[in-house]
């Protein structure tokens, strides 16, 4: 996201996030619900940082402890102010402003539940406030259905004179389609004076922040609006349907951003990319791809179809098909899938392969090494160019503790081998198919650990007489080919 580097910081920014969010019907604070993989409050802090506030305060109330804890970890630069009882947006801003003490300059107010507000739009709002030398500048939008929002009332010359809440509006005011986003820049001094004057004689019995704007008008101070062309940026979330709607739009914006940056997205409707993902150029995302967390994908890699990667690093030109991966590293040109499960600590070197129905956990598969089919590899280090045959299982857990296994470079593990950890198979060894390996195999040796085969002559005729198998045996004995043709 581009930020104009020359923009002067604002003195303070207050994010309102004390509301109850009752319609979410959630034990989690509304502002901690996610849009495009980032909490709504996280988006609000992100946008706030675009105007470089010298003081950043989040007003918390409902589930205050939960929200404070989140902020402590994800936005330590923010302080929290408690609004124990919610007496309206004006009262909330007071709660945020009072602990900041005396200062002058600009105070920006935003909401914790308006996730699509961008840093660019906040910057434009602040620029407009400065250019017009306003005492208050409000972010507004024209919307097809303004129901529920405060309406921007302008006089005949187009000057804003007041904001009327939906519930306080008369019939003609209800027709106004320009709405109050609830996002403003105030002159600090005007804001303090206006808040001190607030009453609560309105339909909701609350202290309305919007009345500060009326107060500025009554004192003949310059009040302005900045109309955004993008009403999505002003939309708030009150319930889970709105959450889904804004999440979809936020995702669409991520996809557009990456397509513009050189990523092919075969089916945007089935693709999800959350906010902190990083992609190279000429990456191709096949349908059903979900990339989240701190996932990064190198140039020219192909992901999907039907793949979910979380906190996973994928190297250039790798191919990852029908895979679930979490906290894994996939080297350049590596080939993964289909139906592969890479768990935390799975690391594939350059050109390595983890093939169909392979699960890997806390293990390194060296450069060019291959685990092509039906295997479980846990707590194991596999050297470069080793080949691990179909159905190989590492028994890494003895029921109490996990143990490590080592497979040396260029070794060849036969199909159906079980490696009982802890065990070491040196570089340059062979393991016979079907072995159960419990002891170290030195370099250059063949490890064989399985029962010798014996055939019991005539057993079928004796013990399974009258079956179709016995009939086939008789037929085979009488001279047709051993497979019975
Ligand atoms: C508010 C505006 C309205 C605007 C709308 C935009 C007022 C009086 N009205 O109305 O003009 O169109 O936002 O969405 O300001 N909050 C607190 N403490 C409180 C009350 C609210 O922190 O005591 C927070 C809420 O968590 C929320 C935000 O402020 O994030 C807005 O509150 P909400 O009750 O949704 O305001 P609206 O009635 O929608
Ligand atoms: Ca609201």
TrEMBL record:
NCBIfam families: glmU, PRK14352.1
GO BP annotations listed: cell morphogenesis; cell wall organization; lipid A biosynthetic process; peptidoglycan biosynthetic process; regulation of cell shape; UDP-N-acetylglucosamine biosynthetic process
Presence of keyword Magnesium: yes
EC category name: transferase
Stated role: Catalyzes the last two sequential reactions in the de novo biosynthetic pathway for UDP-N-acetylglucosamine (UDP-GlcNAc). The C-terminal domain catalyzes the transfer of acetyl group from acetyl coenzyme A to glucosamine-1-phosphate (GlcN-1-P) to produce N-acetylglucosamine-1-phosphate (GlcNAc-1-P), which is converted into UDP-GlcNAc by the transfer of uridine 5-monophosphate (from uridine 5-triphosphate), a reaction catalyzed by the N-terminal domain.
Protein encoded by which gene: glmU
Binding site for acetyl-CoA: 390, 396-397, 433, 450
UniProt subunit comment: Homotrimer.
Any Pfam family: NTP_transferase
Family stated for the protein in its record: In the C-terminal section; belongs to the transferase hexapeptide repeat family.
Domain Nucleotidyl transferase: residue ranges: 14-233
Record-annotated active site: 373 (proton acceptor)
Protein name: Bifunctional protein GlmU
Reactions accelerated catalytically: N-acetyl-alpha-D-glucosamine 1-phosphate + UTP + H(+) = UDP-N-acetyl-alpha-D-glucosamine + diphosphate; alpha-D-glucosamine 1-phosphate + acetyl-CoA = N-acetyl-alpha-D-glucosamine 1-phosphate + CoA + H(+)
Co-factor note (free text): Binds 1 Mg(2+) ion per subunit.
Chain segments carrying region Pyrophosphorylase: 1-240
Linker: region residues: 241-261
């Amino acid at each position: 996201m581009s930020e104009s580097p020359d923009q002067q910081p604002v003195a303070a920014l207050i994010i309102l996030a004390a509301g109850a969010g009752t319609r979410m019907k959630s034990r989690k604070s509304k502002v901690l619900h996610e849009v495009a993989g980032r909490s709504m409050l996280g988006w609000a802090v992100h946008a706030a940082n675009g105007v470089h506030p010298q003081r950043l305060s989040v007003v918390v109330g409902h589930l205050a402890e939960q929200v404070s804890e989140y902020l402590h970890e994800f936005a330590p630069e923010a302080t929290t102010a408690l609004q124990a009882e919610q007496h309206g947006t004006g009262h909330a801003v007071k709660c945020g402003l009072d602990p900041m003490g005396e200062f002058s300059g600009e105070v920006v107010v935003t909401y914790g539940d308006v996730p699509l507000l961008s840093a660019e739009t906040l910057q434009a709002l602040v620029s407009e406030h400065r250019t017009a030398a306003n005492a208050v500048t409000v972010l507004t939008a024209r919307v097809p259905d303004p129901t529920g929002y405060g309406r921007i009332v302008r006089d005949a010359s187009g000057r804003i004179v007041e904001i009327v809440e939906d519930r306080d509006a008369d019939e003609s005011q209800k027709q106004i389609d320009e709405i109050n986003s609830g996002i403003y820049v105030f002159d600090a001094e005007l804001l303090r004076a206006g808040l001190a004057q607030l009453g609560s004689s309105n339909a909701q019995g609350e202290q309305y922040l919007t009345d500060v704007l009326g107060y500025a008008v009554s004192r003949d101070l310059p009040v302005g609006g900045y109309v955004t062309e993008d009403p999505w940026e002003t939309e708030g979330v009150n319930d889970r349907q709105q959450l889904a709607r804004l999440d979809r739009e936020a995702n669409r914006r991520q996809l557009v951003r990456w397509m513009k940056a050189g990523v092919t997205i075969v089916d945007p409707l089935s693709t999800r990319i959350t906010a902190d993902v990083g992609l190279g150029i000429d990456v191709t995302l096949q349908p059903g791809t979900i990339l989240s967390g701190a996932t990064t994908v190198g140039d020219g890699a192909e992901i999907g179809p039907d793949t979910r990667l979380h906190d996973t690093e994928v190297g250039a030109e790798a191919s990852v098909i029908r895979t679930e991966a979490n906290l894994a590293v996939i080297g350049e040109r590596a080939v993964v899938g289909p139906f592969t499960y890479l768990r935390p600590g799975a690391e594939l070197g350059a050109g390595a392969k983890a093939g169909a129905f392979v699960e890997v956990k806390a293990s390194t598969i060296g450069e060019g090494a291959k685990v092509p089919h039906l295997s479980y590899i846990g707590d194991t280090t596999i050297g470069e160019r080793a080949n691990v045959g179909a159905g190989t299982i590492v028994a890494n857990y003895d029921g109490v503790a996990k143990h490590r296994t080592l497979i040396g470079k260029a070794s060849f593990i036969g199909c159906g081998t079980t490696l009982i950890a802890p065990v070491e198979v040196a570089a340059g060894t062979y393991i016979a198919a079907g072995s159960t390996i419990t002891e170290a195999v030195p370099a250059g040796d063949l490890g064989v650990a399985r029962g010798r085969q014996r055939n019991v002559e005539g057993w079928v005729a004796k013990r399974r007489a009258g079956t179709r198998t016995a009939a086939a045996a008789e037929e085979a004995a009488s001279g047709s080919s051993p497979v019975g043709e």
